[in-house]
Design brief:
alpha+beta; six-stranded antiparallel sheet; 3 helices; about 20% helix; about 30% strand
Length: about 250
Amino acid sequence: MKRKGKIILLCLLLLLTAGLIAFTTSKSSIDDQILSYTVDTKAQNLQLFWKNDKGEALKSIQNLKNYVEGKNLCLTFAMNGGMYNKDFSPQGLFIQNKKTLAVIDTADGNGNFYLKPNGIFYLTIDNTPNICKTTDFIDNGKIKYATQSGPMLVIDGQIHSAFKEGSTNMNIRNGVGILPNNKVVFAMSKTEINFYDFAKYFQSLGCKNALYLDGFVSRTYLPEKKWTQTDGTFGVIIGVTSKSHK
């Protein structure tokens, strides 16, 4: 009986070890595939950018970097924001410093932006971050920044019903979610990923709501993780700045 008990115990230990290895490998592979950055909007300076002081679209992260450095600021993080039109104007709602520069788009159409429900990522004047479905958005005059995009990735804790597990619709993707502690997490896939797996990443972090930003054009500037893509051509750019130490 003692010998049999030892064999059973050994089998259980082997199964537990195998499970831990599988979990660690799975988590590691996701962490390797997704580049993420968490922002405390109450303590950090998160802004949405579009044009420089001359009224010219910034278009690239490099141009944004030059722009903020010209104001004695340091760019610590940047990522392309919501989708844009051919003239690089924001597609759908864009609010900057409480001014509505592009109106909300509630129309129907083709493409990712119109895969309903789409949504809006916004920051209030007291720096509280939010993500909501476009149909739920209310401009109460206290919105400091807002960018519209689509589709929603996670809605009330559930993955968008249009996404299929195992889908072969693969692309580089980036998005934004609100964490349970009300901090904002930005994420971009380093390699091609389908919508379901990308949404599941935000869901696994506890995000009740997450919004897709864009696809193959996506770029991220994050020096602290040795990821410094400064090229690209965009409309809205999301940036976090700090005072320059020069």
